[in-house]
Amino acid sequence: MNEELTTRKAVRLRGRSFLALVLSPELPIADWLLELDDLARRSTGFFLSRPIVLDVAGLPVTRDELARLIDELAKRNVRIMGIEGARPSMLAPGMPPEMRGGRPAADIEVPEDGPAGSGKPAERGQASVATPAGNPNLIVEEGVRSGQSIIHPEGDVTVLGSVSSGAEIVAGGSIHVYGALRGRALAGSAGNSNARIFCRKLEAELIAIDGLYKTAEDMEPKLRGQAVQVWLDGDVLKAAVLA
């Protein structure tokens, strides 16, 4: 038996950082859920493909109440990957695991649609876009400002300007940025491992393809400020300077 153990291949353990969105419920929970429903109506797809952590620190709820809250979120397609700040008595078997040690990041501003029926975007949170008829790809005519999210799970997203720090592009296909990419770009969000990211100037906070992420500190310094393409090779996110 000892010989078998020594010849068996070792289990490979790897670390990887992910950027998660943190939800912090407030009492009364029913009113908070109504606010969440309103957010979902104003910004369709906002929670799509986002890893979500539920922060319940200081929230006076029981284990059963927490379980009901998680069920209510699941009905809204909000999938909880972990729970932060929970007392041991609040956690039950089958619940998402306890999360600890998260590093603070910039707040995410929720995009808001314009007035119903106006056909105009709001002053903040919604970029001006044009979608050619019969074409699943989305063209953003202007730059994407800080706090804006462009979410297009059906195909590619092309930004003719720059993507500011604190802005986010989520595409089911590839992402093309004709200016500087300073915010977050998540391509292949619907499971497309062949998606790519192209930009004229790489200064991104985070890039991801099919769920594999790299943050700014993980990127090679020589790529910063360069025209770059990013692609997925197996389970490795690769990047190269465009000629």
Automatic annotation (TrEMBL):
Top-level division of the source organism's lineage: Bacteria
Domain Septum formation inhibitor MinC C-terminal: from-to ranges: 139-237
Gene Ontology biological process: cell morphogenesis; division septum assembly; regulation of cell septum assembly
Pfam name, any one: MinC_C
SUPFAM superfamilies: Cell-division inhibitor MinC, C-terminal domain (SSF63848)
Signal peptide feature range: none
Region ranges (Disordered): 89-137
Keywords attached to this entry: Cell cycle, Cell division, Septation
Its biological purpose: Cell division inhibitor that blocks the formation of polar Z ring septums. Rapidly oscillates between the poles of the cell to destabilize FtsZ filaments that have formed before they mature into polar Z rings. Prevents FtsZ polymerization.
Self-association and partners: Interacts with MinD and FtsZ.
PANTHER family according to UniProt: SEPTUM SITE-DETERMINING PROTEIN MINC
Family note: Belongs to the MinC family.
Listed name of the protein: Probable septum site-determining protein MinC
Protein source organism: Aureimonas fodinaquatilis
Lineage: Bacteria, Pseudomonadati, Pseudomonadota, Alphaproteobacteria, Hyphomicrobiales
